[in-house]
Amino acid sequence: MARASTTSDAFNAVAEPRRREILSFLAGAERPVGEIVDALGLEQPSVSKHLRVLRDVGLVRVRCQGRQKLYRTNAEAIRPLHEWAATFERYWQHQLNRVKERAEAMVRLGAKDLNSKNANEKEK
Amino acid sequence: MARASTTSDAFNAVAEPRRREILSFLAGAERPVGEIVDALGLEQPSVSKHLRVLRDVGLVRVRCQGRQKLYRTNAEAIRPLHEWAATFERYWQHQLNRVKERAEAMVRLGAKDLNSKNANEKEK
DNA sequence: TTGACATATGCCGATATGGGAATGTAATGT
DNA sequence: ACATTACATTCCCATATCGGCATATGTCAA
Question: What is the pLDDT of residue A40?
């Protein structure tokens, strides 16, 4: 199997930086495709393709007005992402507390060998 | 150019559903790889590969203990995602307000032809 | 109708993927 | 030393991508 389609869900659609830019640009107001092209400095076909992906997962909505199509981001579709990330909020707060406690401990103990704690960590 | 590498940033890493499951599983406590394999019902090499991606973008940390490696999710690395999504919070609140207002208007007006408003919308 | 404008789509090539199977490597037990 | 355990890496393959370029579709204007 290959990587999941970009249109499989909001997570995949949003993985592409340009699509995130488009979403930000279209967050406040409706815009025709041409304005996105100018604003982000992308090729028109490229923008159309990105919009297609965003539309398929419900991240943007379109409205036709004469020969142009007005896009706007559907913020509601970003909520699941926000909520998934929020799931981890308590954990990063824990980590911050631990950092804080370590800092305080260092002050109290005069910064004596706190390294021994994680001496066996190995990173990338 | 092809799609950006999954290790290019947290957004890409998190696009894969299994990786999200792994992050959730490793959020509360350190776990050896074997437990992830059992808990999520994936093949061991598959888990190792996902962990590699997550490690490369800093979403998990490892610690060696004897012959096993203990992984835990680094919640801090999820914050950027959370904050990016939070950027749109005010907009989905706007939308909710509009829905609410429409609902109230319907009650007041006795639900007379509110369809004419968006008659020219065209969706997927 | 003809032409200009605004978007969308199709085809191409280069690349990265994720699963499966096999193999590599490091630490432990006997 | 050897077998076992716990992970990581490699190879192969089918697939989906994104960008560039050309082209199709659809709308308005003269």
Answer: 96
User: Measured between alpha carbons, how far is B35 from A29 in angstroms, rounded to an integer?
Assistant: 47
Q: Residue B31 in 3-state DSSP?
A: strand
Give the number of other Cβ atoms within 10 Å of residue B4's Cβ.
Answer: 14
Residue B70 CA to residue B26 CA, distance in Å, equals: 10
| Nearest Cβ partner for B76 among A61, A81, A92 | A92
Scanning chain B, the segments in alpha helix (DSSP H) are 10-13, 17-25, 33-40, 44-56, 79-86, 89-109
Q: Which residues of A touch B15 (CB under 8 A)?
A: 3-4, 11-12, 14-15
A window 2-21, beta carbon within 8 A of B: 3-4, 6, 11-12, 14-17, 20
Prediction pTM value: 0.82
